[in-house]
Amino acid sequence: MNIEELRAYCLSKPEAAEDFPFDDDTLAFKVKGKLFALISLKKWEAGEQRINLKCDPEKAVAYRESYPEEVFPGYHMNKKHWNTVVVDGPQLSRKFLQHLISHSYALVVSKLPKSQRQGLVS
């Protein structure tokens, strides 16, 4: 996936929004103000096509073991709950990458207060 496809997929999630809360480089995708994906634009432009995604801790370990070249503990994130995923990794299909993004979004939605989850598809 190129960056525009990745961006479009993230923004296709109900009430997903993008912003730059940290600096002009880090593109963040949020739902109800909570992060579910991060991309460093400078690194992307330099050829490091990666995205940080939230992940269930047990699944995070399984993904890291199954895809050691493409999925690893989240860079500058809580290593238990976040993975860094190499978007252009040879073993990761577009469908699997979309699954990882959807899982991240759903995990964040599941932790929102019940009143905020209403109407959000996870």
TrEMBL record:
Pfam families: YjbR. InterPro entries: YjbR (IPR007351), YjbR-like_sf (IPR038056), YjbR/MT2646/Rv2570-like (IPR058532). It comes from the Bacteria. Keywords: DNA-binding. The keyword Cytoplasm does not apply. GO terms for molecular function: DNA binding. Coiled coil: none annotated. PANTHER family: CYTOPLASMIC PROTEIN, CYTOPLASMIC PROTEIN-RELATED. This is MmcQ/YjbR family DNA-binding protein. It comes from Psychroflexus aurantiacus.
